[in-house]
Fold each of these.
Amino acid sequence: MISFRVEARTGVPPYLQIVQQVRQALRMGVLDVGDQLPTVREVVAAVAVNPNTVLKAYRDLEREGLVEARAGQGTFVRRRPPGPPPGTHSRLGRSLERWVREAREAGLDDESMESLLRITLRAGDAAEAESEEIA
Amino acid sequence: MSTAIETHELSKRYRRVSALTECTVTVPEGRVSALVGPNGAGKTTLLRILAGLASPTGGTAAVLGGAPRQDPAFLAEIGFLAQEIPLYRRFTAEDHIRIGAHMNPRWDASLVRTRLAELRIPLGQRVGTLSGGQRAQVALALTLAKRPRVLLLDEPVAALDPLARRKFLATLTAGVADAGGELTVVLSSHLVTDLERVCDHIILLAGSRVQLSGDIDTLLAEHKVLVGPRKDTAPIERTHKVVQEVATARQSTLLVRLGGPVIDPAYQAEDVTLEELVLAYMGADEASAGKRLTTVGESS
């Protein structure tokens, strides 16, 4: 079973925060096919959000085909979102950790690392777009 | 979906002062409505009328299809928690549970006991010796044990610390979930971040009038903040309603209620937060007195 965090200051609507946390848990392998999501009652009693917010989040996940509501039983995971298997994330996470350590030793602070990541991602996008153009 | 609360041009005058002026609002069943507005805007008056504790001097109010009144059948459906928490300080929570059983036809004592046990609030201790947060929890749990169909809460969290507030709201949302869409709540508070999590409907009062009311998601989608160069806003006002305008010498920021798409490319349209919306409409009360334009950085 997973628990949710709902923060007011993120600018992300509460229902979307729940959707994203379920997707994230599925990608990381914290949730697996067949697992039950907490009931609406359990979620609202823990994080104090409107029950309709949780219902909306679960309906969205259902529409995506990731979960299914079973009458009288609750909401269960049907499949994982498309993407590499959970192990990939933790493997890449570990190599990223090594990189961060190296960057920190080289004197980069968090902000410089973040901007470096952004620049690299953007450069990657541009290179991809270019190669498509050539092809 | 049926309507739980409906008022039509509801007014309340005390001698020469208007506490409420021509308030027309509708709250569908199952919603949690945020009642917001400056102090003295009429929030408590509205709640007291809906609870049958005060009578209007004009207009009509219907709660669960009938006029609020002091009769047992009506009161059995209504939970009302006043600002000053109405408990007998020398009695224990358990005493209150027993008193409630005598007074309420649908009393659910196990509901109070379970919730208070979850919160580790002792049932056998005089409520006067509990903390403010615990007392508020006892009062809310007792009100929910009545199994009301309409719950009216007048600034119940104002005096509580952040943790006690969160726990109080969790008890409330759990109560709403337990009722399976049959409990309608009106909750007055100044704490917009709390209301944002818990409420899906809003009634905003300022200067004794309803300035804004309806489904929160719909209202957020209907409003935008337009940021652009300072210029004549007449073209904008032909399509949209300007709720608030903040201007510097060069730039103006308009909070508008959309009447169609924003066409002028000079303006950048941004989403509004509930807090921005609430603040803008609270100020809209003054706007009707001809002070809509707030000018920053220059003398007006």
Amino acid sequence: MIALLLRDLRLAVRAGGGFGLGLVFFLIVTVLVPFGVGPEGALLAQIAPGILWVAALLACLLSLDRIFALDYEDGTIDLLATSPLPLEGVAAMKGLAHWLTTGLPLTLVAPGLAVLLNMPAGAYSWLLLTLLIGTPALSFIGTFGAALTVGVKRGGLLLSLLVLPLYMPTLLFGAEALRRGAEGADNTVPLLMLAGITLGTIGLLPFVAAQVLRINLR
Amino acid sequence: MSIWEYANPKKFMETTEKVLPWLVGLTAVTILPGLLWGFYLTPEAENFGSSVKIIYIHVPSAFIAINAWLMMLVASLIWLVRRHHVSVLAAKAAAAIGTVMTLIALISGAVWGQPMWGTWWAWDPRLTSFLVLFIFYLGYMALWEAIESPDTAADLTSILCIVGSVFALLSRYAVNFWPQGLHQDASLSVDKAEHVADVYYWPLILCIAGFVLLFVTLVLYRTRTEVRARRLKALEARERMA
């Protein structure tokens, strides 16, 4: 499993096109917002938590179809399915690799972009914390979605349609926890709900994703 | 009689052929008097005027919209557990009807909300969760269309329906985090105090019964269409082989 994880990480970094792209997309979406709503600092500060979360979510979505599509095309996934490694483990590692190459870098650059959106300085730690807790859920839900659409030619658009509604609770709790944290209000409940969703998706969805892969490989 | 007998499409087609005319008749004698009673024979409510009558469309369609998804969930589970072929086709058939019912509930609600709340739309928990439900329906139907092999499509959509149900429920409770919005409390609930007034209650019940019958009738019709489409595909395949 570790070998698979390392392979995926190496592929993501070296094969190009995937790794940096999400980050650049995150940057562009964040930069586009002031162009759209105008440069008033107070307004930007108010909407910054939502914008950063939505942008992170979209950047995450961008690289989802790479999770399984390439392996499906060149037959790697068949080899993995027949190997002694349980398919559930494969799905979990794929999710983890996606998070390490997308969610984690997004989290780390987010404070830099928060400066552009005039976010109050006290909120940076909340931004890091909520994204750190929430983005794994995005990756694991995405792994399930990618497994669903792996057999569909050009399934990228379908994948977005299927995955985005599943992202809604994560987005709501993540942005709500960040907003309350930024305002200095008590945000324990949304934070706990966010953590609950993440743990639940990590614990359960690899099993579902593996089942879906088996159906697709029949 | 058990539902397992109807896993045989032939048996299903024979039975529904006999049952459907009766169901159509029963739907007509429930839904038409219900709507007429509601529209013409109930008084206008104070504060609401005649706009209160949208309730006879809005509440039943919302009721069906939610329960159609529940029915799809149960049908999907039956398919996954016992490979009940007609069951999964019924789920597929119900999806489109559920989508339309969700849309009717949203639009009738907007039409009612404009004069009453002064806005077509508000990000109220109930309204939002219906919009989310609508998107879930769209995703479910899109997945059906995208996959060619019928059994694979059935399996994948069933799993999507189950996972989607969990997330739809999560979204429903997540939006409760927002400040409570404009929507009224439940029109019908076990707690009597919340009920609508008695004059509106019985026509509403009749309308809901009518919508349920309408839903069952439409699902059966659409399932029959799906069965026939399957048969056509099989015939075409056989012809190509010959």
